[in-house]
Recover the amino acids of this structure.
């Protein structure tokens, strides 16, 4: 007969910390990037891009978003493929 070994408190504590740690990582990977990057706006400048393919639409972005027009922020990440980061939604 096997008898359930009472789990000692220390092990329980480690397991709890581990679970919280994993949950933290999961939430970070799941939610973090999406929420901070502005999606493609729904306005008259951008509305037409929602019905286009991503690659097709991206050809037009820099007609307005360039240093002489509406410049990107100084600390903007590499801007190849706009719509991978600025999601259509
Ligand atoms: C006809 C000009 C024009 C074109 C083309 C254009 N934009 Fe814009 N965009 C603007 C203007 C003007 C603003 C700033 C006003 C605003 O916030 O709507 C802006 C703002 C933005 C913003 C910031 C929104 C925010 O919430 O602050 C993002 C992101 C953006 N554009 C992405 C894009 C992408 C991606 C494309 C290509 C698919 C694109 N734009 C094409 C004119 C344009
Ligand atoms: C690698 C991901 C990535 C790519 C690719 C990218 N961006 Fe961004 N963009 C960001 C991040 C991050 C910010 C800063 C956070 C924010 O304000 O949304 C930003 C900010 C902006 C802003 C200012 C938003 C604001 O709220 O003031 C505009 C406009 C913009 N990007 C347009 C573009 C355009 C146009 C392209 C393609 C030529 C592009 N981005 C490609 C990640 C990206």
């Amino acid at each position: 007969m096997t008898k359930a070994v009472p789990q000692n408190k220390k092990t329980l504590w480690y397991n709890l910390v581990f679970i919280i740690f994993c949950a933290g990582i999961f939430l970070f990977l799941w939610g973090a990037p999406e929420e901070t990057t502005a999606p493609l706006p729904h306005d008259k400048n951008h509305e037409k891009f929602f019905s286009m393919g991503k690659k097709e639409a991206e050809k037009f972005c820099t007609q307005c978003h360039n240093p002489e027009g509406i410049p990107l922020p100084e600390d903007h990440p590499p801007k190849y493929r706009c719509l991978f980061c600025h999601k259509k939604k």
Notes: The mean pLDDT is 88. Residues 2 and 19 are 28 Å apart (CA to CA).
